[in-house]
Structure formats: structure tokens, C-alpha cells
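Support case: pyridoxal-5'-phosphate complex. Customer-provided input:
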Amino acid sequence: MEISIRTPLIHSLPLSQHSGCHVWLKMESSQPTGSFKLRSAGHACCHYASKGATAFVSSSGGNAGIAVAHSGRRLGLPVTVVVPETTSARARQLIEQEGARLIVHGEVWSEANDYALSLAMDDIIYIHPFDNPLLWEGISTIVDEVISEGVKPDAVILSVGGGSMLSGIAQGLEKHQLVHIPVYGVETHGTASLNASLNAGKLVRLDKVSGIATTLAASQVCENAFKVASRLDVRSMLVSDAEALHACRRFLDDHRVLTEPACGASLSLLYDNKISFTPDDNVLVIVCGGASIMLEGLAG
Ligand SMILES: *Cc1c(COP(=O)(O)O)cnc(C)c1O
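Agent response - structure generated as follows:
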């Protein structure tokens, strides 16, 4: 059983014309919870359920927590999501709407996370937001689906937070012998943890993260994402909050889909002409989505 769905692969006419190449959009925004996290968390929850898990715990007040809550509901298993006080009312509502028990604990995420970890025991399984091979395996099916539709990407554009997307796409590319193509890993200036580690040549932790793309705000990428960057042609790209937001607005008009700034960051590489391609290039953009965004969040 899989809980995530096969998402549409759309040839974007507006973005293709704008960028002078073939732009393919993998619409993870179409997942029932609005982001690719249903592939990762959903796959992990199914795996653990088949091994006898009786409940799940998450500490994510974002798309990962919503995806765990959804997966538990679908599997008929209870979910507890522990979030810090900073978690938005909208995110809390989405988690509770899925039927999960919401516990608000601590001022910052690490306090909520410590509490979540203390709840996990035996068959009560803690689901990490990005650092677990099961999560990456679930995400790798994005590449399987693209290939099965006859599209062979010449480049991939994706957003980087904690690095599960990068890890999963890399796994998919390796499966299909596409390790040579460039993978543009996009972060905002305030959440540039992959960028910092690549510059340092080792895994580093940011002292602070900031800005609008809270979904990308992991202070350190997982070790696997860093390793992937040394195996594949991963190119770190940074965009501003304003560029990410602007791309969300343009995408809403072009494709009538609302996305988080975390996703706008990837889209802005094309909208703001930060990279160029040749007319024959097939460029795959992972439209990672995002559930907590509402129309008024894009106003400005
Ligand atoms: C989780 C998430 C990201 C970042 O993914 P990582 O695997 O943490 O790098 C980007 N966009 C959206 C919408 C997400 O939910």
C-alpha cells in the first residue's frame, strides 16, 4: 500500500516560453496533503505499520507533521504531533483536521522535538521530518514516474530544507542512470544550510535561520544530502525571500496553483532567469507544494 498518489507531470507552456527550454512540472502540490511529504512520511508509516507499529509521533508543525497525521488516519493508527508555540494557527488546524492529537510544547522546535522523542517507545514510532532512508525511498518514486512518462530530464530543480528531497531525487536518478545531470538545489539566503556545508567542505550547522521560507529552515542538512552533493552534480543556488514570494505569485497566475515560498524558491530560478538552458533541454522542476500557505500570505 502507498498513501501518496501519482502526481501530474505538466509541460509548462508559460515557463517553457519564458526560459527557452522544455519545463516539466512534477506537481507534488497535488498530493492530498499538498506536498511531497506524503511520499516520504507515507512510505515510512506504511513500512512501520507492516512491522507492527501501533502509533506514530512527529514533531513537525509543517508539511511533514501533516503528512504523518494523514498517514496515521489512513492506516487507522493514532498520531501525536508535538509542535512549539511558534507553530501557526493554520498548521495546527490542518494537523487536527487529520485527526491527530496536537500537543503544544516548548518555545522552539528542539524542545518540542525532545518531547516527541520521549513519547516514542517500542511500537510507537517517531517519524523524522527528513533524515531516514525510508523517507528518501518514498521520494525516489518521483523520478520513476517521470521516466515512465517518457521524459528524460537534462536537469532537475528542487528546494532544499533538511535534504530529504535532494536525497530521494538523487536515489531516483541513480536508479535510472542519470547521475550526470545537474541538480539545482535551491535555498533562500536565510535558510542556506546546504550552501554553508558545501562551502565549508563539511557538514555545518547554521547559528540561526531566518526569513519567509520556514519550511526550508533546517539549521543543518542531513548527512546523506551532503554526501549526495559530492557524488552527483549538485549545484547550490540561493534566492531572496522576495524572489521566492514573487515566483509563488507568478506561478499562481500561470498555473492556478498556490504554493509555499519554499516551493517558490525553486520556481524563481526560472522566473528570475538565474540559469539558462538550450531549447532542447528538458528541465524538471519539483513543485514541492506546501499546505500552510493561504492567499493572504502572498499579498504584498
Ligand atoms: C519539506 C519541504 C521542503 C524541503 O524538503 P527537505 O526534504 O527538507 O529538503 C520544501 N518544500 C516543501 C513544500 C516541503 O514540504
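The beta strands are 9-11, 22-27, 55-58, 79-83, 101-104, 124-126, 155-159, 183-188, 234-239, 282-287.

Case will auto-close in a few days if no follow-up is received.
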